[in-house]
Amino acid sequence: MKRRGHHFLIGIGVTLALSSLEGAARACSCVPPSQKEAFEHADAVFLGTVEKFYDLYVVEGWAASTATIRVKTIWKGAKQPIIQVSTNSDEGMCGYPFVEGSEYLVYATRPREETSPDALWTWLCSRTSPTHEANEELRLLGPGTPIVP
Predict the structure, then answer these.
(1) In this structure, are residues 96 and 87 in contact, taking their beta carbons and an 8 Å threshold?
(2) Backbone angles phi, psi at 52, to 5 degrees
(3) Sign of the CA dihedral running 131, 137, 139, 145
(4) pLDDT by residue (tens digit) across 48-75?
(5) What are residue 13's phi and psi, to 5 degrees?
(6) Whole-number Å distance between alpha carbons of 27 and 40
(7) What CATH class has 35-146?
(8) What predicted TM-score, i.e. pTM, was given to this entire model?
(9) Contact, 134 vs 45, CB < 8 A?
(10) DSSP class of 128
(11) Which of 9, 39, 92, 103 could hold 26 in an S-S bridge, CB 3.0 to 4.6 Å?
């Protein structure tokens, strides 16, 4: 009887270990570029508050979410008061987890295959971050251009 209990506990441990590996296999893994590289690669770099974050559509099997952001300051790209930025809906696939009402420093790019010239995308590996975590980034960027609504 003791051996059965022991095998049962080992089985539970193996199951838990395999479950954690499954999550790890789906986890986003990348090395973010330097601030300089991220700025050079981005089509738009701006600071703003997420007004709305919602699932929008499926593109070639990938679920996408879009953040509508009220822009406060811009360093690169079109000087618009409202910008929409899409991302993968799944953090495991490097989608950015925007939160409505929070302020972010956003590095966004236009996908080369995208038909809309205004389409912007970001992801976990782009250096996009909440402003409370971006003090050094903001210092490196300098004052930027304020956007007046």
Answers:
(1) yes
(2) -150, 140
(3) negative
(4) 999 999 887 666 667 888 999 999 999 9
(5) -60, -45
(6) 27
(7) mainly beta
(8) 0.77
(9) no
(10) -
(11) 92
Give the C-alpha separation, 4 to 25, whole Å: 31
How far out from the chain centre does Cα 118 lie? 18
Q: Report the run of H or E that residue 74 belongs to, with start and end.
A: strand 62-76
CA-to-CA distance for 130 and 89, rounded, in angstroms? 18
User: Quick one: tokens of 144?
Assistant: 């930027």
Query: How far is it, in rounded angstroms, from Cα 109 to Cα 85?
Result: 9
Query: Rounded CA gap, 100 and 67, in Å?
Result: 8
pLDDT digit string, tens, across residues 14-34: 333 333 333 334 578 888 889
Helix %, strand %, coil % of the chain (to 5): 30, 35, 35
Of residues 74, 127, 67, 135, the one with CA closest to residue 102: 67
Rounded to whole angstroms, the Cα distance separating 33 from 125 reads 8
- Give the number of other Cβ atoms within 10 Å of residue 62's Cβ: 12
Q: Residue 84 forms beta bridges with which residues?
A: 68
Cα(72)–Cα(81) distance, rounded to whole angstroms? Answer: 7
